[in-house]
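Before going further, it is useful to explain how the protein records used in this thesis are read. An example of such a record is reproduced below.

***
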Amino acid sequence: MTAMDSTNGAHAVRLLGTHGSAAAYMLRDFLYRSGVPFEWIGLTTDERARELAQVDNLQDARLPVCIFPDGTRQEHPTTRQVAEKLGWLQRPSSAEYDLAILGAGPAGLSAAVYGASEGLKTLLIERSAVGGQAGTSSRIENYLGFPGGISGSELAKRAREQASRFGAEILVLQEGVRAELLPGKAIGHLADGTSFVMYAGICASGVEYRRLNLWNEERLRGAGVYYGAGTSEAELCTNQEVFVVGGGNSAGQAALHFVRNARKVCMLVRGDGLKETLSQYLIDRILASPQIEVRPHTEVLELHGTSELEAITLINNLSGQQETVQTCWLFLCLGGIPNTNWAGEAGLVRDEQCYLVTGPDSDDVRGRGVSVVRFCVRVR
């Protein structure tokens, strides 16, 4: 039995499943990032599956099983079903808002705090877990006001509580799909068919993790292949060899987080090393750790495994030499692609990396019949 939270199991959600289950990972990740106390019970034999989860065997389609403090049992639930049981699935309580914010990462949460604290009727919409990509970070040490560092999930929890205290309304597992721009206002539409009026809107839609673009990558997602720092998985990597792909701060933070439990952490860096992409304080700690190996000029060429990751093939992009190593833990910290498709559809200018063109950078496109980003707020 592995407890993912020190809270007494009698007062926490219990999640029972098998290692390598993508469905179990999605639930663990959601609960961890949402700050919900839970206990993960890893099932390793058919006998334990029958005894603890009351299913036939480890291959039973009813796994994973989620048991709530009131005794309610959900079999193979979705994150949406779990959120509904927790009382989080809601629709907008009002037909009109002074301010609507799309995305509940640090930027969206900050906007919600500032808007609500000034008396604006504020709606914050998040399609997954509050905290965005930052919520997956194991430790943030260069954020103003936290000299000792703070985990991304804890930062998101505090910001959520602060926004709620000022009266901001927060919707999780809701997705904005389009907006109609009308004189003096806009109408926002959610994926479930709900609509509302907003007099000002902020898009803080963040980024999507970059992919390796390997043929079986999506099939192994959550079953050995993970995106981001994988904070919910760290305790499950005890005495294992973990591979982290990337040379940025998120990769460095992940490596330092995993090294507390893992036998060895191997950082795979496409470039010459860490100097050009990593903050110096992280470089110093990584180089001082005997459990972390940095392999420059190395990329993942192939993923092996049918239902879960079993091995990876690496290639040195200088020599061309290939090597296949056994592992069931691969964390991809490759940076992100901006979620700005909505902007392209609206006719706003984006650069080659899909970031919005703003400020002085927009001067050379004015007058060409295209739109640039403008900021306008109208408060009733």
User: Anything to note?
Assistant: The longest helix spans residues 152-165. DSSP finds eight helices and 22 strands in the chain. Residues 1-9, 366-380 have pLDDT under 50 and may be disordered.
